[in-house]
Amino acid sequence: MADGSRLQLTARGRAAVKKPPADVLKLLWQRWLKNGIIDEFSRVEAIKGQRSANALSGLVPRRQLAASGLWLLPLGEWVDVDHLFARMQKEGMDPTVHRSGRGLWKLYLEDPQYGSFGYDGAYDWELLQGRYVLALLFEYAATLGLIDIRYTEPEGARSDFREHWGGDWLPFLSRYDGLLAVRLNPLGKYCLE
User: CB of 79 within 8 A of CB of 183?
Assistant: First the structure.
């Protein structure tokens, strides 16, 4: 909708200005779900190996599956993110971040040999899929105004990564660790329809 270094409106952007804002946001959300340029998981910088060949799963299917977790949120009610994670797992909404078992070995904390997520028992849903969902909720759903969020400083907000080799030295696994709860608002419900 905008182009150039000065971000001037394109023809599509000028047309969008004339439409109701909720309709434009709904269109942006729907288009974003179907297109993949930047992987949200790349913002979880503590997890290394993401650029390795065949490490990460396909972005668009993963993004759509993670975003479908918004359907689990009741309108106007705060939901703890750990409760949302549990519901997503129960409903089979698993936006798997790694492409395969071999791809899982390529993802690690601190050291590719000792900190790999491929070791038996080293991989938990909250560490990879959970962090991906947190990034998507914070960076996109909240930024567009589809959800309200409760957020605190990430340091000390989550401790689920501490047992993983290399995690004991990190103040937090991702900047999204401070995302505590989310609430679907009327705009979000409209955009999901």
Answer: yes
Pairwise CA distance, residues 13 & 11, whole Å: 5
Does 7 map to a domain?
Answer: no
Domain count along the chain: 1
Q: What is the CA radius of gyration of the chain?
A: 18
Residue 104 lies in domain: 22-192
Strand, helix or coil for residue 20: coil
Residues in CB range of 25: below 8 A, 6 or more apart: 144, 145, 146, 187, 191
8 in a domain, yes or no?
Answer: no
pLDDT in tens, 146-182: 999 999 999 999 999 999 999 999 999 999 999 999 9
Instruction: Give the DSSP H/E element, type plus range, for residue 47.
Output: strand 47-48
Counting as low any pLDDT under 50, the low residues of the chain are none
Amino acid at 161: F
Q: Which of 55, 60, 66 is nearest to 101 (CA)?
A: 55
Enter the pTM of the model: 0.93
